[in-house]
Amino acid sequence: MSLTVQPTERAERGAVRLGTLTLGAGPAVVIGGPGADARWIDLRERLGRPAGGTADALAEVRACWAGPVLVEPSSADDLPGIAAGADGVVVGAAWTRDLRLVRAVSRLGLPVVVQRGPATSLEEWLAVADYCAADAGDRVVLCEGGGRGRAGSPVAAPDLALMRGARERSGRPVLAGLGDDPALAAAAVAAGADGLLLSPDPSRRTTAAAQEAVRVVGALTRREEPGSVPAARGAIDRVDAALAVLLERRAELAGTVQRLKPVGGFAGRDMERERRLVAEMARRAPSLGEARLAPIMNAVIEAGLHLAEERRAGESRGGTVPPAGERAADGLRERAPGSGEGRAGSTPRQGERA
Ligand SMILES: C=C(O[C@@H]1C=C(C(=O)O)C=C[C@H]1O)C(=O)O
């Protein structure tokens, strides 16, 4: 039995615009610090700092970032400043029981992100979202996890099954709150998160890992239906990112099997195994079919065999293999006996012209 990755159904989702960003349609977004698709400010973290408040905090971010900015208030006093300068408001987990603040927030005319805290049930959380939606014109996004009791205390890990359930029940976009830990980023994207909410100031590594999960895991697990050239190119770039990861992994494994086989490299080429492998792939790629997949996989397999032979040659010379661009062509292009045997129209060697 094969495991089929089910693309997440997205058509029925109610998308929410956040400035220039769309949540709930297209790829998952990353909300965090520099390098993310949107940024956010937690004014609770700024309590006790010299006055200046919301406007100063927003000006600081706007000075170096032109995209969407979300703000979590530290109290109702922050709301006018947020209304004047932010693209959305975060109702942090700590606020969900303060219905006066929730109501005031949802009357600002901005999209609202409603975060679930560890002590809030699914029912309560969805009820708060509905309460907001009445005033916020349905521009409500749910965020599972990531809530902190006090500023600085550790974030609560998201319950991804709950996040998925909330998304199905409400039809609203959902975020996974990850704080500074990208460990669940891939799982969250696969579980259908429309975005990942990091901490307001995550490390560069956290943001990069979250973005990579969105691209690679997103390409594998969710179907996109882009409606413009830039959107289609973005979707293609994400699929190519996933392909590159898989091609690199495949090349490593192809090298391993060459070392393990009694006769490796081009000399040990097994065309019957290659045919079966193409037939098996055609089940998952029926539009391409065996006829179109065969030359693609021939090129992939030959690239793997070349790499394995180059590495073996490097090892037997006692050195390490230089990067591809610096490699001497001589000695590496020698076709081993039996290579390409029986395959009509075998692709030209690397660097050769057809
Ligand atoms: C990997 C093997 O060696 C060769 C390379 C293959 C590949 O990269 O898929 C497939 C068959 C062989 O020609 C193998 O024997 O399985």
UniProtKB/TrEMBL annotation:
Residues 223-312 form the Chorismate mutase domain. Residues 327-336 have a biased composition (Basic and acidic residues). Keywords: Transferase. GO terms for molecular function: chorismate mutase activity; transferase activity. Coiled coil: none annotated. It holds the Pfam family DAHP_synth_1. One of its GO terms (biological process) is chorismate metabolic process. Residues 311-354 are annotated as: Disordered. This is 3-deoxy-D-arabinoheptulosonate-7-phosphate synthase. It comes from Planomonospora sphaerica.
